TrEMBL record:
Transmembrane segments: none annotated. Keywords: Transferase. Belongs to the 3-oxoacid CoA-transferase subunit A family. InterPro entries: 3-oxoacid_CoA-transf_A (IPR012792), CoA_trans_fam_I (IPR004165), CoA_transf_BS (IPR004163), NagB/RpiA_transferase-like (IPR037171). It holds the Pfam family CoA_trans. This is 3-oxoacid CoA-transferase subunit A. One of its GO terms (molecular function) is CoA-transferase activity.
Amino acid sequence: MIRKTVANVEEALKGIKDGMTFMVGGFGLCGIPENIIAELVKIGVKDITCISNNAGVDDFGLGLLLHKHQIRKMVSSYVGENDEFERQMLSGELEVELTPQGTLAEKCRAAQAGFPAFYTPAGYGTEVAQGKETREFNGKMYVLEEAFKADFSFVKAWKGDEAGNLIFKGTARNFNPAMCGAATITVAEVEELLPAGSLDPNEIHVPGIFVQRIFQGKDYEKRIEQLTVRTLK
């Protein structure tokens, strides 16, 4: 059985260069590849394009890369929790491509499945459709969206094995599965790395064929983006 394990995050990110396009899993701060993001900040890679549902918050997640001005372009669907993101977008420092959330997910999935493009009704008649092919099917208009093209996909899973099979926990199973195999190289960081064959096949969410490198992460903060508690009387 092919082993996909690498010793650490440094080895997992070999081949990273300025100007590349990265897919980054997560939703808000849930299921983000914390170790990988920290290493990208450390090595100082710049002029990158990030495909991610959002850009984290000001002091965590992709917000750390934004503060270092390492991101040239964000392709996202939601940007409301990051003041620095807003400032850079409005000032013209950051190029932003806003994409409907379902379309963002499907552009990942299409790349994963090897489909070059697909039609969707989302965005028809809006700025999202400008410059894109449109077509009518059964009396309804659709927009042609192309699959993403990325150099690396960075995902975070709960458990994985040496063959690259992955299991996600709870809502961390958001954009992560769709981004596996959707780029030239998929790197997975996991909380628990087990020997190949240890996982129950019926519980695996992503088979190892979609993963090229896997390593065990450490020191996860798992921050809560917004915590609301009830005030006891």
